[in-house]
Amino acid sequence: MPSIQQKARINDVLHRIHRDLSAPLTGAGLARVAAYSEQHFHRLFKTVTGESLHRYIRRVRLEHAANLLMFEPLTTVRDIALKCGYNSLASFTRVFTEQFGVTPGRWRQQERFRREPYLSDPEIAAGAKRVAALPLPQPDLIELSDQPVAYVRHLGYDRSIRSAWQILQAWAAAEHRPFTHQIGLHHSNPAWTPLESCRYVACLGVDSAVPRRGMVNSMLIPGGLHARFKFTGQYGELLPWINRLQDEWLANSGLKIGASPAFTEYQRNQFIDPLEQFELYYYQPVSFY
Known about the structure:
- The protein has 289 residues and is of the alpha+beta class.
- The chain has helices at residues 4-19, 27-34, 38-49, 53-71, 77-83, 89-100, 104-107, 110-113, 122-132, 161-174, 238-249; strands spanning 140-144, 147-155, 182-186, 199-205, 217-221, 224-234, 256-257, 262-268, 277-287.
- Strands 1, 2, 3, 4, 5, 6, 7, 8 and 9 form a 9-stranded antiparallel beta sheet that branches.
- The longest helix has 19 residues, at 53-71.
């Protein structure tokens, strides 16, 4: 069983990976981030994440590529491959096809191949029906600064996310930090990632780094240009809202998807709210080029 300190070092590596998926993410370089020998680092990474380093990096790069293919129709497949760390179009096409069962070009025929696995959850399917009858809010385009946060990572998108927020609540009380400025990072797109495999990060805005690393660690959420949507609702409705903004707004906006993860900023957090209701801003990273 990995120690809390070992998990904290692997969290540093995960932050480095997700900060720039186009970067050369080598085992030797990431082992230096974790301050372990490369051999020990590979063993520990798999123990903590459940995936080998190679498989993890390939999966998150390809999930990002799937997003870009969906929502950047004017960006060439070659440019998307480069954005996701693949210098060879042939190599990118081969691994993408292995992952998704179709070539990148065929993937762009989105409705034919889209599975939307989150609709297998009855509450989310019911939420999607309710959301479908409502108008999509129009976003504001705003420039954000980098945001330092304390965070807890969580695997799976369901009510079990509550446990990550409870850990943060307990930590904030112990450290005498106000439990405000709650942020949820969305690393995965549930339009094609099963809910149990979605990666979520519960975050608390802080004004200084976490002094003692353990179950709770600290990082910077990158700033930059974001489209900000305001949503209110109840548990089961947020993922359908996100799906709609991607399909109805992002794909037609003329903007490109930013490299950093999208995130929510909660005024009312459905995972810890007694009535499971939310009021939040959803920030979609975007760029002009």
